[in-house]
Amino acid sequence: MKIITSEEMRQLDKAAQTRFGIPGLILMENAGVQSVRYIEERYGNLKDKNIAVVCGKGNNGGDGLVIARHLSNKGAYASVYLLSGAKDISKDSKINLEIIKKMGVPVYTSVSNIQSGLKKADIIIDAIFGTGLKNDISGIYARAIDLINRSKKPVMAVDIPSGIDSDNGQIKGCAVRADLTVIFCLPKIGHLTYPGAEYSGSLKIADITIPRSLIDESSIKTHLITKDSVSKIFPKRRPDAHKGDFGHLFIIAGSLGLTGAAVMAGLSALRIGSGLVTLGIPEGLNHIFETKITEAMTLPLPQTNEQTISPAAKNKILNCLKKANAIAIGPGLSQNRETAQLIRELIREIRIPMVIDADAINAIAGHADILKKTKAQVIITPHPGELSKLINITADEINRDRIAIARKISQQYNIIVVLKGANTVIAEPEGNVYINNTGNSGMATGGTGDVLTGMIAGLICQKVSPINAAIAGVFIHGLAGDIAANEKGETGLIAGDMIEKIPEAWKSVKVS
């Protein structure tokens, strides 16, 4: 499913009107009708309910006026609280304002009326600002938003909660906290990136009759990952298949005190369907690995004095890679200087698809140009802290515009970027970005990133393209976390719980 910016939505609206002759009033009417349908679906019979509709001066406010009219027709006590003078509102909004006045729907303009109206309301409709908001909110608008949030009443937002930047999910001074947001045509980026995702509540997408052909032919490059799209990615298995058909993954991982990361990456690759997994680990820790994991092979490698993998292991690793289909580098490697040197040398020389995670990302911090010189298809899987070190900007700056930054880094270095977090963002060099909305806060625990690394690399081994492996891996990873959290709760969730749920998550996607 495509996800759009405010400008892309404006262009779709404009094209619907100019190319297809659909008047703005029709689009506004459809938006209002569909909103009322979802309000009724969420809150039940609306007859005799007191509903406050808080409107701004733009077309979002006009949508609110249409909503008020239809609520009144359904027997609700609808009241409109207009935050601007009637002369300042948009052309289409004025037409709808005149209609509701003739219907006898009360319209108020003072803050005192808004305050008293919200107190007696059963439901509040936020139709103050739509997707075009660019400046921070102040004055009567900020006051109204504060009153809405303090009312503790159920709130439905029209298209997007007022105060949320639809292009990045950031708060423009203050924002309405909605329980339900009815989205028009397509989701906006702000609905699915934080904090906007938190403020939006439950999401419902309303068809306002923008022609499907306009959407299909558009150059929109941001997408929501869906179960249907992921179900098409997984390769089919022949009845007479053998383990060699599902690839051989080599994982360079582990150090003293961090053996668990390597094990979890290996188990996850096996659970997602890899035929063979070999762990390249420090030789002095081999006995630990052979005790911890029985289904994967190990390759003991020369080690440093700190029991991390030594640069002396380089040739042995490159020789082993002749039999591998993909490589994952990073889980639990440590930040030993000698090991970091080895990682940088390997990244320059490896020719098979490569997933770079954790300490391998730290190893190239300050040396990011190495990524421009690789001979392999590369996926990096940083969290904001790791990406911060790699590109030398703060994690806060990254989180303020995750999509734009992931896209920029992907194109700059010609790599796939999997920027972990809620919600994980995947960017590819062609400019496409994919947003994932599976997963939960219980996954904020040690080891979940190692699980993801193994899953993505394990899919590549099965001849899934790197971008599709990233998309499917991230979605199934989050879904496995959701299944585990549903069973155990989020608080006590650990990475091992997710590994055990990978087959169930995969099965549920393939069945769809």
The shape, in one word, is: elongated
Helix content: 40-55%
Question: What is the CA-atom radius of gyration, in angstroms?
Answer: 26 Å
The strand order across the widest sheet is 1-9-18-17-16-15-14-13-10-11-12
Structural class: alpha/beta
The percentage of residues in β strands lies in: 5-15%
Give the SSE map:
Blueprint: E1 2-3, H1 6-18, H2 24-43, E2 50-55, H3 59-73, E3 77-82, H4 91-103, E4 107-108, H5 111-120, E5 123-127, H6 139-151, E6 155-158, E7 180-184, H7 189-192, H8 196-200, E8 202-206, H9 212-217, E9 222-224, H10 227-231, E10 248-252, H11 259-271, E11 276-282, H12 286-292, E12 297-301, H13 314-320, E13 326-329, H14 337-349, E14 354-356, H15 358-363, E15 378-380, H16 384-391, H17 395-400, H18 402-413, E16 416-419, E17 425-427, E18 433-435, H19 448-461, H20 466-488, H21 495-511
Parallel strand pairs: 2-3, 2-5, 3-4, 5-6, 6-7, 7-8, 9-18, 10-11, 10-13, 11-12, 13-14, 14-15, 15-16
Antiparallel strand pairs: 1-9, 16-17, 17-18
Helix pairs in contact: 2-3, 3-4, 5-6, 11-19, 11-21, 19-20, 20-21
